[in-house]
Amino acid sequence: MTGFPRRARGIRRALTGALLAGLTLLTTAGPAMADDPSASASPAGHEAGPTEAGTTFRTATALKQGRSGTARASAGDYLYWVFPADAGQRPTVEATVKLPESAARRGTSTWQVDVYDGLRRRQACMYGHQTRKATADAATVELSCVLRPVRSWSEPWADDPLPGSYYIRLTVVDLPAADLGLPVDVEVRTSVKELGGGHDGGGTLAEPLVPGVSVASAGESDERASDGPRTLATGEPEDGWASGWWTDRWLWTVGGGVLAALAAVFGYSLTRGRGRPAHVPPGL
Questions:
Q1: What is the pLDDT of residue 198?
Q2: For 12-21, how does the pLDDT look when each residue is reduced to its tens digit (9 = 90+)?
Q3: Contact criterion met (CB below 8 Å) for 130 and 144
Q4: Quick one: pLDDT at residue 247?
Q5: How far apart are CA 240 and CA 223, in angstroms?
Q6: DSSP states of 159-193 as a string?
Q7: Contact 75, 179 (CB under 8 A)
Q8: If 0-12 CB within 10 Å is exposed, 13-18 middle and 19+ buried, where does residue 269 land?
Q9: Other CB atoms closer than 10 Å to residue 41's CB: what's the count?
Q10: Long-range contacts of 101-104 (CB under 8 A, 24+ apart)
Q11: 50 CB contacts (<8 Å, ≥6 apart)?
Q12: What residues contact 21, with CB distance under 8 A and at least 6 apart?
């Protein structure tokens, strides 16, 4: 009777090793993508960013992912930029306002950066310094906003971030009347961190939330029909929008199925025994 315990221990060791190997694969496949610095943001390259900002949503200056833009404006102006964000990404917006010399200012000012999605819904920041006060002797103001992860799909009543354009609005919300119109220099920076499919919602949008995307899609269909070149829609990432069907959740699904099968085989090997004993005649 010593053969069965030895064999069970051997099977147990083998299956335990397989389970540990599967768990190691699953725990390293997803986070490796999210923690890889090269995948967290687009390379800045050598292309200079825009040197002006829009004054409304419709005239917002376009920014590429991972790029920065500058502008010279007057205190009290509303400044707008727009950049794309896709499913599985977590956007971050940072802004630096260089204030006039303290001798020209009369008091404390309060600056604020807001982010809106393609439907112009204001998106809440997970964390960051969205609103900050600048004392009369401060030289700069640093603002930041880390958005929630962008989902591939959401319920119509929800306010979740969805793939599409994201608008940055920077302005001063509290300022002495005597300081209105003073010149300021502004720099905004955008970055995205790839989070993978852990935040997918089980569906996809028909079109990303980009102004004019329906017109662009119709033009693209006409170009394909005439074998013409494909044009990028306004605000589209350089590598295009996510296809919508592939996600690293497939790896977790397949890995979970493999682990479940191994666990079933392991349990069966422990409970099936060695069959009918040799001294028991057939039929009993």
A1: 63
A2: 565 556 555 5
A3: yes
A4: 61
A5: 17
A6: ----SEEEEEEEEEEE--GGGTT-EEEEEEEEEEE
A7: yes
A8: middle
A9: 19
A10: 102/136, 102/137, 102/138, 102/139, 104/182
A11: 61, 62, 63, 69, 70, 71, 81
A12: none
The three-state secondary structure class of 225 is helix
Q: What's the pLDDT score for residue 175? A: 92
The structure tokens 């079109």 sit at 207
* Higher-scoring residue by pLDDT: 166, 25: 166
| 227: three-class secondary structure by DSSP | coil
The position carrying tokens 């001798």 is: 103
Helix (H, G, I), strand (E, B) or coil at 84: strand
Instruction: Name the more confident of 284 and 43.
Output: 284
DSSP-derived 3-state class of residue 74? strand
Alpha-carbon span 283 to 153, nearest angstrom: 61
CB 79, CB 171: distance < 8 Å:
yes
Which range has the worst mean pLDDT, 10-14, 81-85, 204-208, 274-278?
10-14
User: 20 is written with which tokens?
Assistant: 């540990």
- What are 50's two structure tokens? 């825009």
The predicted structure's pLDDT at residue 233: 42
d(CA 114, CA 124): 8
Q: 164 near 85, Cβ under 8 Å?
A: yes
